[in-house]
User: Fold this.
Amino acid sequence: MTVWEDLVGQDRVRTALAAAARDADALVTADASGTAPPEASKMTHAWLFTGPPGAGRATAARAFAAALQCTGPDRALGGEPGCGFCDGCHTSLIGTHADVEVIRTDLLSIGVKETRELVRRAQLSPAVGRWQVIVMEDADRLTEGAGNVLLKAVEEPAPRTVWLLCAPSLEDVLPTIRSRCRHLVLSTPSVAAVADFLIRRDGIEPEAARAAARATQGHIDRARRLATDERARARRATVLKMPLRVEEIGGCLKAAQELIDAAAEDAKQASETVDAKETEDMKAALGAAAGGRMPRGTAGAMKELADRQKRRSTRTQRDSLDLALSDLTGFYRDVLALQLGSRVALANEDVRDALDRVARASTPERSLRRIEAIGACRQALDRNVAPLLAVESMAVSLR
Ligand SMILES: [Zn+2]
Assistant:
């Protein structure tokens, strides 16, 4: 089982990364033996992984990080780096390698302060490994100021530092940064590839795996959640009932409110476990007295934590809404396919009755306009329009 095992349906990307890891290995070996580095190396210091959500951008970056740290015996015999078994591979994959840092934000943006600190650490040599690898899973969330801080590090990287940036598309990254990165594009994995992965890696029953893969249309994490989490299935079922409820205005507003409530509930559930512990830990670190009284001068730090928790909750709500909007788009796409008589496999075969009903009661033009209304809602949310307003306006347009 190599480090590439979790990369689903991305053969081209895998080939490119394996070749770069081989050349990176040759560089390290040449360095250690004092010989000249190989010419025309496929290794470079900055990489950008783009591709649709759920295609496995971060998985690809982490696999590459592991391959760069591989010290397996096969490698010395001329085999591929990335055995998956050696200490370098293993600790990289489980996230404990000292020279692999994964930056994953649960906030809406990554600011200047934290980026500066990261860039400072990136100047250091690897502590134990062969390369110092920094995986930034949400490079699209860098603020413009933070992007400019990062640019300097990407322009003049330390000799053994590698930046692996992930973003949905090229447009999500500053042009100055992306022009200095080698760009790899992941594609949406096929339904069959995702199903196969769920069966192989998670031991999910073939039929359930195929249904989850079909419903989520190549989004690996969502497919896995749908196949394993009862709550996710219930949530999807509720969302897919929405098209039948929006025929009159009262139903629209009620359905909108329910979507918002469900997103808030998701955020509450996610934060309940984390926030309390985080707050306790922070209080203890700041030296809270028995009874919870805080020492002087710690109010600022506590406020900063509370702000951070609030921003995280906003992001969870946003992600939850986004998921609902994806399911809804998938529904109308199926309706459109039925109306046009196209022979594509339906994502939501399990609610075929509802699809048929909506398809019969409307026209392809109507379905297109509904899909556009969902897209408009997404854009409004991106512009920070109040979620309830955005969703209500969408629900009304779905009538
Ligand atoms: Zn290895």
Summary: The mean pLDDT is 90.
